[in-house]
Amino acid sequence: xxxxVAVFFGGESVEHEVSVISAHQAMDALTPDKYNVIPVYVxxxxxxxxxxxxxxxxxxxxxxxxxxIAECTQIYIVRENNKAVIRPVKTKMFGSxxxxxxxxxxxxxxxxNGEDGTIQGYxxxxxxxxxxxxxxxxxxxxDKVLMKHILADNGLPMADWFWVYGREIDDHPEEVLxxxxxxxxxxxxxxxxxxxxVGIAIAHNDEEYLExxxxxxxxxxxxxxxxxxxxxxxxxxSVLGDGYESETSVLExxxxxxxxxxxxxxxxxxxxxxxxxxxxxxxSKGAGMASTSRIVPAPLSEAETEHIxxxxxxxxxxxxxxxxxxxxxxxxxxxxxxxxxxxxxIPGSLAFYLWTAKGVSFPELMDRLVxxxxxxxxxxxxxxxxxxxxxxxxxxxxxGAKGAKGSKG
Length: 409
What we know:
It contains 12 helices and 17 strands.
């Protein structure tokens, strides 16, 4: 019997369009003889839509999103009789009141209002098994401030950094600048909870710092400042598993195809380089993150590779991650010292190109994600999450939950 797999994508995020590409790559890789794929598109105003046409990336390309939505059915999902049921918001007189049910969900939503725990919390309320990080792992993975504190507590190496609220620059600009000078320019500024290099820039002096800060604060309430590692090599590793049980992919070294000091959005998603080997396998209709200029496997020694893979697994476990993630590292090209940069809990293109290079096909990767989701649900079903009490039976109005005000003993 085939499983009904709902792939959630889109969302109110600066990475909305990237999510559309990644999701279609994933849907193409879900084998039709095993799964009934249900595309669930989350619009930029957070409404849900579906249509059989949405399974084809060509339905989105060359069109405005409003035109796409106009040809789809707006839906809502409700839990009935222990099932997650998809229903149309508006039903025709003789139309069906049920579109289908969901056995397992695969969120492919990058950035805020999706990857950050939002969609995971929604699926938790519906009691739908879902692939990838749970709510907690998603939240700390998206918020780089929380992530860095957890990694520091676990002894993982990071470049020197600090963070402030965006509005602090208005009240205490000199204090913030003093912290930046202490790191010594150049420094890199990042919004705490965005991805795809959006809002990220390098500052070489106070004037540039204030300009970069102003841009970064447009995307998030918290802004991170970090010491730039020079000369730097950027090495990425994908990790697949659940918590402490995980395995690592082949490593990649990525580079900017432009003359900028940072790998920017265009480099990542708009053909900055040749597609990685395997980027067009499994019916992929868009290269997405796989179009980044990269070397796979990364030209590293065996010892360096083992060290980075070990740090990747430790990072994955420390953050309580699950599913398929990508962990980005910075290596000082001279000293060979390695620093953990960040985790991407729903990486672009689901980092499939790093697994195909290891001999794991994209369809096999999707199979494993679905199985990990179902296994986590089985484990949870054996856990105690509530217990019966007589609290309400004996409760008297006017008293607190721990006893009436003024009661003795």
